[in-house]
Write a structure and sequence with these properties.
- The chain is mostly helical.
- It is 85% helix and 0% strand.
- It has 4 helices and no strands.
- The longest helix has 29 residues.
- The protein is globular, with a radius of gyration of 16 Å.
- It starts with a helix and ends with a helix.
- 20% of the residues are buried.
């Protein structure tokens, strides 16, 4: 349970930092990132937490499932990103490139946190 609480604290800090980065990029007025990016930060935070719990529980049952669970989590996030970008483009919303780039940043940051934390937790268990 301690690992889950530690991960949740890191995740909350990351959500705030990524939101602040998006705000700072919008504040510079050189780039206009769509406001939906803030919602995407929260969505990816929730997905990351749920996937973390799934990976940890799968690994506790059978340690050989670790690689499968991590790769599955990456695929879930990748497909979620593809669906979001596709829907946004099909709806012909403004700032499509900015949304795609911000979504890639969000995806990369949250995937890095998930992978590093899960690897650390599995090694120490």
């Amino acid at each position: 349970m301690k690992n889950s609480t530690s991960f949740l604290l890191k995740l909350i800090i990351l959500i705030v930092l990524v939101g602040a980065c998006i705000f700072a990029a919008n504040f510079s007025q050189k780039v206009t990132i769509p406001e939906i990016s803030y919602v995407l930060v929260l969505l990816y935070g929730l997905i990351t937490f749920l996937l973390y719990r799934n990976i940890i529980s799968a690994t506790k049952k059978n340690p050989q499932r670790f690689v499968t669970a991590v790769m599955g989590s990456i695929i879930v996030k990748l497909f979620t990103s593809a669906i979001i970008v596709t829907v946004y483009v099909v709806l012909k919303q403004p700032n499509r490139v900015e949304l795609a780039l911000s979504l890639f940043f969000i995806y990369a940051v949250f995937t890095a946190l998930l992978t590093s934390q899960v690897s650390k937790d599995v090694r120490t268990a």
